[in-house]
Amino acid sequence: MSADHRIEAITKRLVERSKPTREAYLDRVRRAASKGVHRASLACGNLAHGFAVCSPGDKAALAGDTVPNLGIITAYNDMLSAHQPFETYPALIRDAAREAGGVAQVAGGVPAMCDGVTQGQPGMELSLFSRDVIAMAAGIGLSHNMFDSTVYLGVCDKIVPGLMIAALTFGHLPAVFVPAGPMTSGLSNDEKVRVRQLYAEGKVGRAELLEAESKSYHGPGTCTFYGTANSNQMLMEIMGFHLPGASFVNPGTPLRDALTKEAAKRALQITALGNEFTPAGEMIDERSIINGVVGLHATGGSTNHTMHLIAMARAGGIQLTWQDISDLSDIVPLLARVYPNGLADVNHFHAAGGMGYLIKQLLKGGLLHDDVRTVYGQGLAAYTIEPKLNADGTVARQPAPEESHDPKVLARIETPFQANGGLKMLTGNVGKSVIKISAVKPERHVIEAPALVFHSQQEMQDAFKRGELNRDFVAVVRFQGPKACGMPELHKLTPSLGVLQDRGHKVALVTDGRMSGASGKVPAAIHVTPEAVDGGPIAKIKDGDMVRLDAIAGTLEVLVDQQEFESREAVTIDLSDNEFGMGRELFAPLRRVAGPADMGASVLY
């Protein structure tokens, strides 16, 4: 099935732009793969250290070069709901590997932090850079050179992007991503938002807020709203790193375990020792990346991926840009309504037809490349399924439904929820930024109001509590970029801005910080680059300047005389309070070398 000519044109543009770096990358991958079974090159002392704690049978297997060894990279910890289920996965994977005639070892662990825990706290300033630390930590585990294939156990915000960067850095090895699935549904999202806004207004206390939050986040698995964590799972499936249907099956179920075992066996089937060698670096190409962006738009996914996808693509020598992402947004319709773009959660999305139905509709519209390589060994048409459990405990796959089980959650390609995707780039005299519009009502796609400038989200919160924000305004929250303080998410602002908008005021946010996958009903121009600490135009905005955010035209402008605006000195502030505490001092070298948001905000590329 061929893709729409507009999708083909953007893909061709990406291929041409990426040629020099992609060709150099593939040359490195192929040279690494040509060396054969990697542990065969280890000296006897090296190898003895590598299998010292294995069983006698596994030692005998690893002493030769004909039995594949599967390296497990795990983001397990038992504090975070999404990663706690991974505690039991290594045992499942080892058993499955032995059944398939292979061996599996935990190659290493990577950190996994939760933005939900650190939101609005000093630790949040480590969050974005944890992505690149995760990639480096995975690299340390795989540097032992003992492995023929890999499985990556990770789910949440920075973990999957970091793991994918590692998978492409070790692109000569096959890689299968293994999710844990979402927690079961708890308190409805609209009720959770209602209580949060009541708390912001002082109408309920901390006890009522904590009770609501605890009913929302109540058990093992990812949070059920469609934020970065669940956008990650969608991406891994639509890009072919998951087995079909793996993304949104709940933890602790027989089907979840069956999918995990199947993933381990499949990872061993696609090594260089067999006939289906699928190195990750060759499997993922420009078409795979385009498919990921299309899926992000069709589901109203996380704004974080306007950075993560760029960094992930660059790890494979592919030069994705914000312009590519924005142009695809004009082509791809919104097919899913999942909170914050609707009231449903990801369990409702899965029950309505889930990834299989979504991919089927996008293929029907010519909006995906079907002719891609996947870990399943077939193109994307093989992903138009619903996973079920056979009587013998193995995975069965049935065709995805022709019609959505819930048209309020998943739409047909002919009748989308809106004609364009969820993410757009804005340009103008403030620089470049991105906006998520899938949850913003059309009448709020254009906001023109005077600026109120803040240098922290707490400063704005204090102004709200003092009753100083009961008016139309554009909140300019600056010095929140990667170099300034690690680019934290600014969700502390969401309830108060929502309250002001509900009171009838025209409000918007402009920031060089982040808002993430939970970006909701308030228009927010985020990731502004150049950032304030680099002397970007956002550092020249003054209180009272008229600001126009136009998500229809794709512009972000300060409506003052351009000559006068350009002649202004960029404001500087003392950032020393952001340099210490909660580990922030350890990340000082990363802040110094961080790239701009439109290049992935990476310290690696």
TrEMBL record:
The keyword Lyase applies. InterPro entries: 6-phosphgluc_deHydtase (IPR004786), Dihydro-acid_dehy_C (IPR042096), DiOHA_6PGluconate_deHydtase_CS (IPR020558), ILV_EDD_C (IPR056740), ILV_EDD_N (IPR000581), IlvD/EDD_N (IPR037237). Its cofactor is [4Fe-4S] cluster. One of its GO terms (molecular function) is phosphogluconate dehydratase activity. Its EC number is 4.2.1.12. It catalyses: 6-phospho-D-gluconate = 2-dehydro-3-deoxy-6-phospho-D-gluconate + H2O. Residues 68-381 form the Dihydroxy-acid/6-phosphogluconate dehydratase N-terminal domain. Binds 1 [4Fe-4S] cluster. Residues 408-601 form the Dihydroxy-acid/6-phosphogluconate dehydratase C-terminal domain. The keyword Transmembrane helix does not apply. Keywords: 4Fe-4S, Carbohydrate metabolism, Gluconate utilization, Iron, Iron-sulfur, Lyase, Metal-binding. SUPFAM superfamilies: IlvD/EDD N-terminal domain-like, LeuD/IlvD-like. Pathway: Carbohydrate metabolism; Entner-Doudoroff pathway. It comes from the Bacteria. [4Fe-4S] cluster binds at residues 156, 223. Belongs to the IlvD/Edd family. Catalyzes the dehydration of 6-phospho-D-gluconate to 2-dehydro-3-deoxy-6-phospho-D-gluconate. HAMAP family: Edd. This is Phosphogluconate dehydratase.
